[in-house]
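An example makes the point: we print one protein in full, the chain in one-letter code, the fold tokenised, without further comment:
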Amino acid sequence: MSRIVLGVAGGIAAYKACLLLRRFTEADHEVQVVPTATALSFVGETTWAALSGRPAHTSVLADAHEVSHVRLGREADLVVVAPATADLLARAASGRADDLLTNVLLTATCPVVMAPAMHTEMWLHPATQANVATLRSRGVVVLRPAEGRLTGTDSGPGRLPEPEDIEASALAALADAGAVRRMAAQDLAGKKVVISAGGTREALDPVRFVGNSSSGRMGVALARAAVQRGADVTLVAANLAIEPPAAVEVVPVVSTADLAAEMNRLAPSADVVVMAAAPADYTPVRPSATKLKKSGDAGLTVEFTQTTDVLAGLAAARRPGQVVVGFAAETAADEAELVELGTAKLARKGCQLLVLNNVSGGAVFGAADNQVLLLTASGIVGRAAGAKTSVAHAILDAACTVDERNPE
């Protein structure tokens, strides 16, 4: 169980913080809500107390005998502010201590994650951007706001990220100090990353298909991690079982042929290309134009042909300076066999980095956690285990340094 302080600033998006609070408490985290006085105009103190099981105070004078304005920041494992308004960002950047929340931010020694929400003009204003830069320079993780409908009829960047996206970012910060540094530093800013995710479907007839068990969770986690670190991310999504992050451009596809076409279109302009999707290896030669019917006790014979090898094609077309990352889901008796299978696939595909999963017994698919080996031509360069968002940061770290190990 981790101790999380959830700061809530005074914006209409404060209602979404209730959903974030519920996600934290349902994951067995101990949450203390610290709203600003203005935040209570949007969501009342009773609501915060009922959802968290703790009183929610705004003033440093509340529970003064416990010295809450210092204790909360010192004892927290994580501080999350959602929404973080333009005013709150400005006060935090200038070191103000005029309410309980800003006092917590000044005394916190744990990771701090801030999720901005405001109108587009306010987010893009040079003063706000300077405040964000100041906070990031101090190691604060300031998430990129989503784009979409704002208050009234306005639309644009400045929308609060969805609670699940904030939670994933927060838990990544909680689990990995290195990820905190990279998210705060925006180490992938200016980079274009193209990621595929999910499992393709090959049509047998208009209503049936041949598919696989990939949910797309690992690819979505990679897209989220890359966005957290400042990258411009496009996600080629093949039949995902979960929603993609809001700050990602999504290109939906169905079949392996669709996947190959979109990845080949997008890859030339990318700095990093990650093939996390699970494309079908075979597709029916002649899919039926009408629904296939049962015919007595007779079975069904379908002729298949191999599909395009998407990863090999991307690796063959790789330009200098570009990194191509592949995935291999293998069934292996032990690590030695897994590495042997991965080494052979790495050589066959021609990518620079291969992420190896052992999926024996149905492991990994659809799960929240993952366990991988990271393999290059020089051998194992890393291992990662845990929540897929944390594993995603380890994969991106390896992708960012692969050329240092394997120069052109």
